[in-house]
Amino acid sequence: MRIPRYGGGRLWRRPGPITRGITLVTTAVALVAVVLTGVTAWYLVRTGAEAQQRDQLGRQAEVLSRTPALSELLLDREQRLAGSNGQQVAVVTPDGETVGPASAAVDDRTRTRLLGGRTVSAQASLDGTRVLLEGRPAPGGGAVVLTQPYLVVHDSVARMREALPLPLAVGLVGGGLAGLLLARRLSRPLTAAATTARRLAEGERGLRAAPGGPRELTDLTSALNVLDEALAHSENRQREFLLSVSHELRTPLTATLGYAEALADGVIGPEDLPMVGETLLSETRRLERFVRDLLDLAHLETDDFRVEPRPVDLDALVEKAGTVWAGRCARHGVVLRVERPGRPLTVETDGVRVRQIIDGLAENALRVTPAGAPLVLALAPDGDAARIQVRDGGPGLTPEDAAIAFERGTLHARYQGVRPVGTGLGLAIVHRLTQRLGGSVTARGRGPEGGACFTVRLPRRPGPTASPADRLTG
Q1: Pairing status of strand 335-339 against strand 374-382
Q2: 449, 391 Cβ separation under 8 angstroms
Q3: Half-sphere exposure of residue 195, counting CA atoms within 13 Å on the CB side?
Q4: CA 68: distance to chain centroid?
Q5: 342 or 243: whose pLDDT is higher?
Q6: Residues 402-445: pLDDT tens digits?
Q7: Which site in 68, 70, 313, 427 is 20 to 30 Å from 340, CA atoms measured?
């Protein structure tokens, strides 16, 4: 027999592991509650039954103590009270004598309390039988004592106890059903979240987990939605980067392949060989530089990238960098200016990586700075950090450019064919290196010299560095 379907799904589905687990837990809690309730109820029933019998016996003793004729009649006839369930009576005379069938249950202490005008509510033994004893002093002196076998209490408890299993069973079944309903309510958004997570792992994007349930489950679905957006953004960035890399590799490969085929076919004369060789060397170096940048960037994305912090005098480091870049700037007709404190500025960092950052920014600036324009390498203390700036007199950046300057290949794709561009990875490498050193780097579209201004801020002491988990949306 096939199970009928409704609304695209089965009317009843076998509970999943989460539903079964929550149901078992809630049922176990209900069972414990039922057991504790049963124990408490039994104790209350037993106590209540005894109290009820004592109250009834006490009222009868009170009536007899105020009706001497009735008490004497009972004693003369040595009868039990009609319908009294084994009740027996004893009378304590004003002179302390005890008479009646229940005399053996009245001890000296009870007699003394009664003659002193106080009521007595106790247990006693009569003819080897445990009995309830209720004594009331008489207004004219003496007292009346009534006893009743304790078995009457047991009988009453047994009758009440027979009625307990049904409500306890109903409570247990109700607790189990409530647990099942609660489990289904809780497991539904959990199952939906697990399905969404599995589909995300399989590569689907654009999924939206519907929030629902308690706050924690709502937070979970919101986190899955944020993860979906982050993965989509990251994969789009990677796709664009791969397209940019493919385009960047195609140009030098095409030139190299064309000249190689021409050389193989012998169509290039001896007089053109120097020119062809220079072109092949230039394109090969371009490929080599691009591959090196790719490897550097990939290395920065891994956890085993090593940073060796030690005390570094940035003033001396910037001076050495200025000496090297002064020659390169002079060959391009660019005026290099170095601004530094002229005294030690010590920072605990990796000097090799700092020099790599400076070289990356300087190379990027020199590429766009026209002859006769300045290129500035500046160092200054900045509170508990050191500030390194690379400024140029080039065309600068728009505010939109500055916001995405450190994204891989974005400026390269935007300005290719418009202004000199590199591999499109240099600024991304600078950004990752700065993060690994615990610092920050920012870009400004216009600096004092009219061109772009890049500012690196390095703490005096090593701080937290960016982890690979931070790169999901980076």
Answers
A1: parallel
A2: yes
A3: 10
A4: 80
A5: 342
A6: 888 888 766 766 666 666 665 667 788 888 889 888 999 999 98
A7: 427
User: Residue 236: phi, psi to the nearest 5?
Assistant: -65, -40
Which residues, at least 6 apart from 431, have a Cβ–Cβ distance to it below 8 Å? 406, 441
Taking the CB of residue 335, how many other CB atoms lie within 10 A of it?
16
Q: Do 53 and 85 meet the contact criterion of CB atoms below 8 Å apart?
A: no
Q: Which has the closest alpha carbon to 299: 428, 395, 166, 460?
A: 428
> Which residues, in sequence order, are CB contacts of 324 under 8 Å at separation 6+?
none
Q: Give the residue from 112, 166, 156 showing the smallest Cα distance to 132.
A: 156
Find the DSSP H helices in 66-164. Answer: 68-77, 108-115, 151-162
Alpha carbons within 13 angstroms on the beta-carbon side of residue 240 total 15
Predicted local confidence at residue 400, as pLDDT? 86
In the structure encoding, which two tokens stand for residue 94, read together? 């004003």
In sequence order, what are the beta bridge partners of 124? 131
Give CA angle at 383 (380, 388), nearest 5°: 30
Would you call 111 helix, strand, or coil by DSSP?
A: helix
**Burial profile 400-427: b = 16 or more Cβ within 10 angstroms, e = fewer:** ebbeebbbbbbbbbebbeeeebbbbbbb
For residue 197, what pLDDT is reported? 79
Average pLDDT over residues 266-272: 82
Among residues 168, 135, 179, the alpha carbon closest in space to that of 23 is found at 179
d(CA 378, CA 355): 13
Neighbours of 268 (CB within 10 A): 14
Element of type H or E holding 382: strand 374-382
The total number of residues written for the chain in this structure: 474
d(C-alpha 121, C-alpha 123), whole Å = 7
The whole-angstrom separation of Cα 295 and Cα 423 is 12
What is d(CA 466, CA 461) in angstroms, rounded to the nearest whole number?
Answer: 16
Helix (H, G, I), strand (E, B) or coil at 349: strand
* pTM listed for this prediction: 0.47
- For tokens 């308690």, the residue is 214
Residues contacting residue 29 through CB under 8 Å, at least 6 positions apart: 175, 179
